[in-house]
């Protein structure tokens, strides 16, 4: 008990110190002469930081390739020069406008990290019937379309100090994209680990990059590929779902890591399967994309009596009143109402949508609550993963 109150006090102290730094910095910048500001802009580490972590990168759709009936591969080419480098497995936020409002969604980069030096990123987009953004991309992107993207982000990357040298990668559907990037980077020598891919799809016709993956496995002894089909039986492919038994069948001797990227149903199934492998939790890594679309399936969620709440959104000196259903995130409600709110991962992890809860109550599912303890203590929320439990007032930063 004593320990936890000491921890809380320490957190309060650190947060108070941190909160003081920002106004002090802003004041220094405000008081600085234009010469001093100019010098800062050309300061070498600042130039390098801007190149490595640009806020926005301007690209053009250079090529479009249909991979299956509902998945399309888009090649984005930098409008001049290179694109920011990244580790295989990273994602970018892709921006698109609808009715004058800018929206964004995260997509894993499917191409090799090496291609960014030539100014190229590739993303594969699956058209979802109930997915507003994927339809927007499929319907409006053509060769020559100008597309803004964020800097690469995320930590679903191979890290030799943390991960085992041998990795089982479990992909479901379009969740293959970060693993394609990893395989390409093993082939071109950027990454050095052994990768066994277990790739699940319903039917053979739904496997993305099938020939390319098969060729990669034939070319490099560090890459193994196993296709797993749930709805049909085919020679050379496993039949069924990817569970503990199948993973053990292909797992190497000794220590190995498991990386997972796929639909939420796959994560839910694997939650019961992965513990059967008996490997340490630190060796299990999951890509976290995906807004939880309905909180009702969460174990600790209690559905509120009301179905819809009033959400007051303060941005700077402005204030808007909108409606938010009990089963939609605050971010979705804002976007639906034309409020430009910041976002990146949309999974509660990156903190980019970080906003202040002024009043009211909301529910954040534990598995997508990436807030720091200090944020929770001082009433900050991530609107991308928060569902209303009452009328609410929130302070939201401007989108940049
Ligand atoms: S967008 Fe990443 S935490 Fe909300």
CATH topology of the largest domain: Rossmann fold
Cα-atom radius of gyration: 23 Å
User: Percent of residues in beta strands?
Assistant: 25-35%
- Global outline: globular
pLDDT averaged residue by residue: 91
Let me know the number of strands: 19
From N to C, what is the helix and strand string? HHHEEEEEHEEHEHEEHEHEEEHEEHEEE
Can you identify the CATH superfamily of the largest domain?
A: Nucleotide-binding domain of ferredoxin-NADP reductase (FNR) module
Please give the CATH class of the largest domain.
Alpha Beta
* SS element count, helices: 10
Bound compounds: FE2/S2 (inorganic) cluster
**Tell me about the biggest sheet?**
6 strands, parallel
Name of the CATH architecture of the largest domain = 3-Layer(aba) Sandwich
User: How much helical structure, as a percent, in the residues?
Assistant: 25-40%
How many domains? 3
Descriptive labels:
26% helix; 400 residues; globular; 6-stranded parallel beta sheet; 5-stranded mixed beta sheet; Elongation Factor Tu (Ef-tu), domain 3; alpha/beta; binds FE2/S2 (inorganic) cluster; Rossmann fold; 3 domains; 10 helices; Ubiquitin-like (UB roll); 19 strands
Q: What does this entry look like structurally?
A:
With 400 residues, this protein is α/β, with parallel strands linked by helices. It folds into three domains: 95 residues, Translation factors (Elongation Factor Tu (Ef-tu), domain 3); 121 residues, Nucleotide-binding domain of ferredoxin-NADP reductase (FNR) module (Rossmann fold), CATH 3.40.50; 93 residues, Beta-grasp domain (Ubiquitin-like (UB roll), Roll). 26% of the residues lie in helices and 27% in strands. The chain contains ten helices and 19 strands. The strands form five sheets. It has a six-stranded parallel sheet with strand order 10-9-8-7-11-12, covered by helices on one side. A five-stranded mixed sheet has the order 14-13-19-15-17. Strands 5-2-1-6 form a four-stranded antiparallel sheet. The protein is globular, with a radius of gyration of 23 Å. The mean pLDDT is 91.
